[in-house]
Amino acid sequence: MGVGHVAVAIGAAKAAPRVNAGWLVFAALLADFLLGIFAYLGLEHATVPPDFASKHYFLFTFPYSHGLLPLILWGVLLGLLVSLPYGSARKRVFVVIAALVVSHFILDGIVHVAGLPLAGENSPKFGLGLYRNLPLELTLETVITLVGAALFWTVASRSAISRYGVILVTLIVLALTWTQLVVVLPPPPRAMVADWIAFPLILSAIIYGLDWKRVRAESAT
Ligand SMILES: [Zn+2]
To answer: Considering its fold, how many domains does the chain have in total?
Structure first.
């Protein structure tokens, strides 16, 4: 899934308004960032199916970045790290960040064809394969985007930069996600690895910058 992760993240600002949405987005995309790291190390990879030109999806071997059990552990680790400075709100921030990391398993599980393992590569896999019907998959992502953006709109009334900026960036990611429909040639493996690592970092950094003023105003009250 593409923009769906980002949309769930900005929507989660409703549950943790004092946390910069950049952190929320990074938590929701952590699995893809880790996929890039593990793929770079040669431990995980994507396979291009022979009928990629008509199917537009990849098959993945990614037990460490996208398995349920590892994602719970990654979620706990990132949750502990991000929630450190939040004092009395620490527990809540921890839960929101950890839940966002684990939400990646559910969202990707709905769409991936080969499925996401529960624990190791040979454990049972969860994959409903919505990618087989890409227009329907993209419509679902669009609906999630509208809900996430609407929730963020209600949270970000204190800063126009945050409100319009974060939602505009999310809509750009939505448009990028739709381009999947016309991709017929898979990118070279190296470019994919670079993309998995860079995209979560760059996107969450942009959103962090846009959301900075809102969080400062939120924390001052
Ligand atoms: Zn993923």
So the answer is: 1
